[in-house]
Write a structure and sequence with these properties.
By secondary structure, the protein is α+β, with helices and mostly antiparallel strands. The chain has helices spanning about 65-75, 100-110, 120-135, 145-150, 185-190, 200-215, 220-225, 235, 245-250, 275-290, and strands spanning about 5-15, 25-40, 45-50, 80-90, 150-155, 160-165, 170-180, 255-260, 265-270, 295-300, 305-310.
């Protein structure tokens, strides 16, 4: 029997994970977005309401990440009728936690449940990518893929994306601190240099390979040694007041690595569970010293992505 309504949750994400610009990301289960999709007799996609921590979003589907993603899904599926969406934002905009991606992912997962022939995960990924483009101005998958699939995800390719869930050592926790400010993803991308020196290319490539190798082998020393972004982080660090102090505090507290989540301003650190609380206190205190209050979480990195929610 065809469903007339479905609700889905999509988790927040850490984009780039420091050393994997636009290709590596992982989920943050503590927060996320919910989208309810309802079948409508009239063709097209309509956004009925936006609620939650953000409400000032476009209601025109073409200009909304969730709306655009479902428009793409509906068109490629050649489905009859239309869809009405209600978006409940749990992720602040401009936080660096993949808010636009989560809305797009939750929307396509909910709308997909209404189709007579649901589409594959890769097809949903591609539709959500079109939604993400509305917010950032470009197609990138480091937030979309983990929000959809769950866990730490590497994505290779845009036109024909291939995804791989990377295992994360069980003892690892991610500490996230979101200072009370926002940074536009577009603005954070606009400041980036279009060229990279050969030495930095080699360094960054080695760090990415070492990080992934450390995750597969459970080698925490390798993860620590490789957890350094030498290309993107230095360019964006000045956008976040006190970033260098926060990073130093996290490392002094026992973190394996600390960097900027996505475009920022959220800063994240990987550490072992035993020192997670100390790392969080150190990071929060460092932001406070720069007169910035913050929201903060400690989360494991589980391979659990977007899913339907039964009422």
């Amino acid at each position: 029997m065809q469903r007339s309504e479905a609700m889905a949750f999509a988790p927040a994400t850490v984009g780039n994970v420091g050393i994997g610009f636009d290709i590596l990301g992982h989920t943050v289960q503590s927060v996320g977005d919910r989208v309810t999709a309802r079948r409508q007799p009239a063709a097209g996609v309509r956004i009925r309401a936006v609620s939650g921590v953000v409400t000032a979003l476009p209601l025109e589907a073409e200009r909304n990440t969730a709306g655009k993603a479902v428009m793409t899904l509906w068109q490629t599926s050649q489905a009859s009728g239309g869809v009405e969406l209600e978006i409940e934002k749990g992720i602040p905009l401009g936080s660096g936690l993949g808010g636009s991606a989560a809305s797009a992912v939750a929307a396509v997962v909910a709308a997909n449940a209404l189709l007579d022939e649901p589409r594959s995960m890769v097809e949903l990924l591609k539709c959500a990518m079109h939604g993400e483009q509305v917010a950032s101005g470009s197609i990138h998958v480091d937030n979309i893929a983990p929000s959809l699939y769950g866990g730490l995800v590497l994505t290779v390719g845009i036109d024909n994306p291939r995804t791989k869930q990377i295992p994360v050592p069980a003892s690892i926790r991610c500490v996230l601190v979101h200072p009370h400010m926002s940074i536009s993803t577009r603005a954070a991308r606009d400041i980036l240099s279009k060229t990279v020196t050969l030495s930095d290319f080699v360094w960054q490539t080695a760090n990415l390979a070492g990080f992934i190798s450390g995750c597969y082998s459970g080698d925490l020393d390798m993860i620590r040694d490789a957890f350094e972004d030498v290309v993107i982080e230095p360019q964006r660090a000045e956008l976040i007041p006190g970033f260098k102090t926060v990073r130093s505090a996290a490392m002094a507290g026992g973190a394996l690595g600390c960097s900027i989540s996505g475009a920022g301003p959220t800063v994240f650190a990987w550490c072992e569970e035993a020192c997670a609380q100390a790392v969080r206190v150190a990071m929060v205190s460092a932001f406070a010293a720069h007169n910035l209050g913050s929201d903060h979480w400690i989360t494991s990195i589980e391979p659990l992505g977007a899913r339907l929610i039964e009422r």
